[in-house]
Amino acid sequence: MLVSEQKPLEEILHSLDGDGTVFLLGCRGCAEASHTGGEQEVRTMKANLEEAGKIVSGWTALDFLCQKALVKTGLQAFRDQILASDSLLVMCCGVGVQATAAVVDKVVHPGCNTLSMGGAQGEWRGSERCAECGACLLDYTGGICPITACTKSLINGPCGGARDGRCEHQPDVRPCGWQQIYERLKKLDHLDKLREIHTPQDYAKAEPPKALRSTTFWALEHVEE
Ligand code: SF4
Ligand code: SF4
């Protein structure tokens, strides 16, 4: 189980700057349990965005956004609304945002930060990985996580070691995460995102917050098998 918290509305509106029409997507898995992306939170976000002058083309909350096939199938019914949108705001953990970005040809914005549970994963184990960094950067990277896709977890572009799209560390098996980010942003016509320079991540957030250790989430995730 991945636990998330909503990003501040101000940060969400900043990420949506320039996007007049937005499709909202929530998750009936961990995000609903976290009260960050269930139906109720998506409805509230819709009202907030409309008050801020955005057009919400449509919304839904699907089961388990961490599973790409479920996301792709679930969004079929909303094809026209999504096509009419500038972007999607996805209210769930980093895995679900990445899985959504992988199946739609639209800009995808994360509505949440994923909190550290000490190494948890999504309910469905796909190829997308979230390191629970507590300050999601997927808005700037085309929905590909720089912390997990890049061997060195670089957040401001590639190192000098990439060759032919492969990572300098184990080039036979590892693509360069930043090459993948570049290709995704180019496809979305958003290479401008690469101009944003990020201050260093606060890696204290990689430690599980004390308050989480006494919750049902923690007990369920760390139960002895
Ligand atoms: S940037 Fe990566 S590690 Fe951080 S919350 Fe987003 S998906 Fe997870
Ligand atoms: S080659 Fe690419 S993936 Fe590997 S460490 Fe450098 S930037 Fe990261």
Bound molecules: iron/sulfur cluster
**Which value, in Å, is the CA radius of gyration?**
17 Å
Q: How many separate domains make up the residues? A: 1
| Total DSSP E strands | 6
By CATH, the topology is Rossmann fold
Q: Any idea what the CATH superfamily is called? A: Diphthamide synthesis DPH1/DPH2 domain 3
Order of helices and strands: EHEHHEHHEHEEHHH
Q: Strand order across the biggest sheet?
A: 3-2-4-5
- Helices, by number, come to 9
| Approximate shape | globular
Give the biggest beta sheet: 4 strands, parallel
Q: Span from first to last CA?
A: 15 Å
Structural class: alpha/beta
Average pLDDT taken over every residue: 94
The proportion of residues in beta strands is 5-15%
Specify the CATH class: Alpha Beta
Unreliable residue runs: none
Helix content: 25-40%
CATH architecture: 3-Layer(aba) Sandwich
Multimeric organization: single chain
